[in-house]
Design a protein that fits this description.
The chain is mainly beta and 441 residues long. The protein is built from two helices and 35 strands. Strands 1, 25, 26, 27 and 28 form a five-stranded antiparallel sheet that branches. Strands 9-10-11-12 form a four-stranded antiparallel sheet, with no helix packed on it.
């Protein structure tokens, strides 16, 4: 009988909210440009300047650094944070692979991407395995960090923030506490002794009085409340039932809580019988009713039936654009970032978002004598590909001509150059992208 009621509830849920007017997702950015998005998204947020920040779960990028084995520089796998302007061009500091903090400490984003969220000042906290790092959203520079945020060796999740930018964070695998760190990443205390269920994220009301815990394996969002916020005691007071949530965000103007359904429960299976997987629903916290929805078209995806997990979602500052990223298994099954847009009061599908200018890591790297530099442009323009030394002196111009849209490679012959680190830069249509490479003899 309980299963029948659950089925009837879910069917009614789908019928009630498919009207809402969000008209379908489109993949972005263009995945042909060499940046790795497909089915691997594990963090997405939007900052006050409208920039879109994205991180993958896997170590699909590389960086030059010391692996600690022999003191030599090595090519290390890492998780880069990519940042785009609202018009789709990359931010000048994107991608972010290494950070330098005000105290001079250096850091590399080596470990698995677990989530990200902008705090109320706009600065972005990125969670890699058990580490949390705050990044200045205007410059891409490191601000502060916390190692072992939930516990040393304990995998963290997407955090939430109150208006004082205190960070609330929990763990993927239960049972673990919900911990709080202040804006300087100093430990404040545990506010929930043991949160239930496997989780990928939580969120917090601006006044800090309510914690929305997404224990997706429990099929509900559990709400912990304290009348005095951090000055009081949090207790479980309410739940949003029959939902398996892995990401959630507040709408910047309505205050509704948008929740991203995963595909891991009986209820979700019923909701998505029409193959509308990974949908998002707006929950009015006052009336405790669903008032809107986003139906993502995954036609042709998930052929193996292995699941759709929304692992990041955020609105543009005005609330008229919604972005989402998904994680799936196999990880090549989904496009990484989707965009929904509102225009003149009507929700409608938009085209591909990011322009797709990309400069890939050279290979091999480090290299001896020759290496290949891949790059992509999606609009014709005057292209310049240049090599600089670490002092900023131009040492070699590789390409300087008008080129049509497409994917290109340049084979660099480094004979005549001194051994060492170099920077190569792509300039086209106002876009500047730089990477480092190591030449050894």
């Amino acid at each position: 009988m309980k299963k029948l009621l659950a089925v009837l509830f879910c069917v009614a849920f789908l019928v009630s909210f498919s009207f809402a007017g969000w008209t379908g997702g489109v993949p972005l950015p263009d995945t042909t440009g060499g940046v790795h998005y497909a089915g691997d998204g594990h963090g997405l947020t939007v900052t006050p300047d409208g920039r879109i920040w994205y991180m993958s779960y896997s170590n699909v990028d590389t960086v030059i650094g010391d692996d600690g084995a022999d003191g030599d520089l090595d090519t290390l796998k890492c998780r880069a944070v990519y940042v785009w302007n609202p018009d789709g061009t990359p931010a000048p500091f994107s991608p972010i692979k290494k950070l330098v903090y005000p105290d001079g400490k250096k850091d590399t984003l080596l470990w698995s991407g677990r989530g990200m969220r902008a705090d109320h000042a706009g600065n972005v906290v990125v969670v890699n395995f058990d580490e949390a790092r705050r990044i200045n959203y205007l410059t891409g520079e490191g601000m502060n960090q916390c190692e072992g945020a939930v516990g040393v060796g304990v995998t963290g999740i997407t955090p939430g923030f109150d208006s004082d930018n205190n960070m609330f964070i929990g763990a993927v695998i239960p049972p673990q506490p919900i911990k709080v760190y202040d804006v300087d990443m100093s430990y404040v205390g545990d506010v929930v002794a043991s949160a239930s269920g496997y989780s990928r994220g939580l969120n917090v009301s601006a006044d800090g009085k309510d914690i929305y815990w997404c224990g997706y394996s429990t099929n509900m969002v559990e709400i912990f409340h304290s009348d005095a916020g951090l000055d009081g005691i949090y207790a479980s007071t309410d739940t949003i039932k029959n939902v398996s949530v892995e990401s959630l965000t507040f709408h910047p103007t309505t205050g509704n809580l948008w929740i991203g359904e995963s595909y891991s429960t009986i209820e979700d299976t019923v909701i998505h019988m029409t193959k509308r997987l990974g949908c998002f629903y707006a929950y009015d916290l006052t009336s405790k009713t669903y008032v809107d929805s986003i139906i993502v078209d995954f036609t042709g995806k998930n052929a193996a039936g292995t699941g759709t997990s929304p692992r990041g979602c955020a609105f543009s500052p005005d609330g008229n654009i919604f972005y989402a990223t998904f994680f799936s298994n196999p990880q090549t099954n989904y496009d990484g970032i989707y965009k929904f847009e509102k225009s003149d009061g009507v929700w409608k599908e938009t085209g591909k978002f990011v322009a797709g200018y990309n400069l890939d890591q050279n290979y091999p790297n480090p290299f001896n004598a020759t290496t290949v530099i891949p790059y992509s442009i999606t609009k014709s323009g005057n292209v310049k590909l240049t090599v600089f030394d670490l002092l900023g002196h131009e040492v070699k111009t590789l390409v300087s001509e008008k080129m049509e849209a497409g994917d290109y490679t340049y084979k660099l012959d480094a004979s005549g150059l001194a051994t060492g680190m170099y920077i190569y830069r792509l300039e086209v249509n106002g876009v500047n992208i730089s990477k480092r490479m190591m030449y050894v003899k």
